[in-house]
Amino acid sequence: SAAEKGGYDYFMLKEIAEQPKAVADTLLGRIDAAGSLTLDEVRIPANVLREVDKIVIVACGTAFHAGLIAKYAIEHWTRVPCEVELASEFRYRDPILDQQTLVVAISQSGETMDTLMALRHAREQGAKVLAICNTNGSTIPRESDAVLYTHAGPEVAVASTKAFLTQLVACYLVALYLGQVRGTKWADEIRAVVRDLSSVSGAVERVLETMEPVRELARSLAEKNTVLFLGRHVGYPVALEGALKLKELAYMHAEGFAAGELKHGPIALVEDDMPVVVVVPSPRGRSVLHDKIVSNIQEIRARGARTIVIAEEGDEAVVPYADHLIRIPATPTLLQPLVATVPLQVFACELATARGNEVDQPRNLAKSVTVE
Ligand code: G6P
Questions:
Q1: N- to C-terminal Cα distance for the chain?
Q2: Catalytic option among 5, 54, 247, 367
Q3: Which of 20, 264, 271, 371 has a 20 to 30 A CA-CA distance from 170?
Q4: Average pLDDT score over residue span 88-117
Q5: Distance from the CA of 40 to the center of ligand 1, in angstroms?
């Protein structure tokens, strides 16, 4: 009913709008006054976490994209090797796991069969399993050694939005907590990131206030057949997520690529006036990354692409090459996905509407896939 949707036309719009609160709620009570993480709910003892020598993240769909982003944060802050794998692939390839492996299973519903099978397999091999889950008492957390709940609240729309942002927050918390427990050389950076995380909810709010031009742009592209998405570093999984949203909702051919791979194939797809969305990393972070992507934008534009550039406020270097410019607030590089994903959700939702598709219940898809 309209009341359930809180005055929005679709649950997805309501859930997109709830993201600042979902992010804040997921942080609530997990950072103390001194800026340290208090994750007592992760019942894996500190000495066990100190012994962990490998982290394996398993998930499906949008949750898998959260895992891909988590890898960058975990390896940077903890220096523990981290693999990310689709749950449906992991289970069937005889993965190498032992008591020193920490498996992180990410699932909004807690009922995805492939993820459940992956965690059962991991536990049989003696690995510890930590679930990141949005649904209290669901199967995946019940069968795990520990759980960190995301506090997104119920997500109804099939295409995941607020659950994704909170999965990212939970992944950052796990990475920072591991860093804290293990006393990594990034201690100062970790404290700074904890502070930045606390202000990210406000940044998401600001993004939501500036989405009208994104909706307009989406409507103008309703007749297109293909949209490409490019990113580097954590912007690469964001590109994958932007493409997934467009497939799910707009039923358009959409692909996400690592911008560095352009020359190895994807650039051959670029046709005149083809929309290409580029996620640009902060120029203040690793500036090499930023410079590289600016030349990628030039390359595709020279081949006729219509460039849709998502870039930080104040990033002037991209302006000459952006046919459409979407501004996002400045955030540290590793946290940028929390703000960069939001315009892509709005973009896909509006394109679905413009194409007459059912936003909350896309064809052929289920909210939770409980068969293998
Ligand atoms: C389905 C949903 C996706 C979701 C995926 C994983 O495909 O349509 O939105 O990302 O399942 O679901 P989970 O509940 O495990 O996060």
A1: 32
A2: 367
A3: 371
A4: 96
A5: 27
